[in-house]
Sequence to fold (237 residues):
Amino acid sequence: MPRHIAIIMDGNGRWAKKRFLPRVAGHQRGVECLRDTVKACAEMGVGYLTVFAFSSENWRRPPDEVSFLMQLFLKMLQREVSKLHENNIRLKVIGDLSRFDTELNRYISEAEALTSSNSGLTLTVAANYGGRWDILNATRAMLQSRPELVAEFSEEDIEPYLSMHYAPEPDLFIRTGGEKRISNFLLWQLAYTELFFTDTLWPAFDRAALQEAIQSYQSRERRFGRTSDQLQEEQNK
Ligand code: IPE
Ligand code: IPE
Ligand code: MG
Fold:
């Protein structure tokens, strides 16, 4: 079982369009799929689920859609957090939160505080997140608190300042909606992640689809630069 699954939940707009519905109907339906996926991951004993909810590039969308997504995020926090808490789920939000209004920021910190000592699944929502921003931000924060590193620093020096420092790197990455790209999601953390792309649109992503992705992950050999023979030898020891 993967310890950490990261998902780009893509295809909401196309799902709605196919049904002659407004794009936002796809986002609404997408929240239900997220709820089911969280439940499934918690039941299967996945430790970390990280989902891309809003990218730093998504501000380029029509203002109506952007404000609908903000409202949806706020509603989700208001409605779902107590349920997450009851289910021992820890909620984290990563991204540049300075662009969100104070009300949303308040709900985010309250939700994180409430669920911070839960020991079940850690659900991370990436909102106004960008992988390049994360790396720059971490480097800046590192140099601010440890100015002596300016001449030379290592990967290990930066890592504690990255937004997902509390989690192992994703084992499995899933992108729904047919596109085969990373779209500035977790660039640093996906370095050795197994990638799974599916044409299934996010609002149609169900347990069977999740199972399919996990099965694909389980059939792969993770070599991390070594040879297949070396791995066999290790196993036989
Ligand atoms: C993903 O679905 C949700 C967000 C980016 C918020 P899209 O809205 O990108 O759906 P498509 O790709 O247009 O179908
Ligand atoms: C990526 O989806 C971001 C989220 C799912 C939140 P997009 O639909 O915005 O990605 P691009 O722009 O098509 O690559
Ligand atoms: Mg899209």
About this structure: The pocket of IPE (ligand 2) is lined by residues 8-10, 52-55, 57-58, 179, 181, 183 (CB under 6 Å).
